[in-house]
Specification:
Elements: H1 14-23, H2 37-45, H3 50-59, H4 66-80, E1 106-107, E2 114-115
Antiparallel strand pairs: 1-2
Helix pairs in contact: 3-4
Length: 127
């Protein structure tokens, strides 16, 4: 391996790079399904499965895999409908009793907490 001395070029300025980037042409969307976005959404609105949509697209000359259609749809849903509103605080839930009303709780004298009542075994395992 050869050791090369760093080049003597000056580091490019940010303004020059920004100007060069703005002159570049936009590239098309990354997904091959992009032209059929509306078709996929119409069929999903009609409650078609991803497998049915994929089969329909293939029958109509659009090569696609079911996983591709599914990822495409979900990524477009996230773009169109980002999560909104604050997350529900975890302490807002009301504590639920461990047992339903038809069972009694038994107080454990050692810890002072409620313990479940003794229950009979579900299967006869005495051999």
């Amino acid at each position: 391996m050869r050791d090369e001395a760093p080049s003597e070029q000056a580091e490019p300025s940010v303004a020059r790079l920004v100007a060069a980037a703005q002159r570049e042409e936009s590239r098309p969307g990354r997904s091959r399904l992009e032209p059929w976005t509306q078709v996929v959404f119409i069929l999903r609105d009609k409650r078609w499965s991803f497998a049915a949509i994929t089969e329909w697209l293939v029958r109509n000359g659009v090569p696609a895999a079911e996983s591709t259609v599914q990822r495409f749809y979900r990524s477009r849903c996230r773009e169109a409908h980002p999560a909104s509103g604050p997350a529900r605080p975890s302490d807002s839930r009301q504590p639920q009793p461990f047992f339903d009303s038809k069972h009694e709780t038994i107080q454990d004298p050692a810890s002072g907490t409620a313990a479940p009542p003794a229950s009979k075994p579900k299967f006869n395992t005495n051999f």
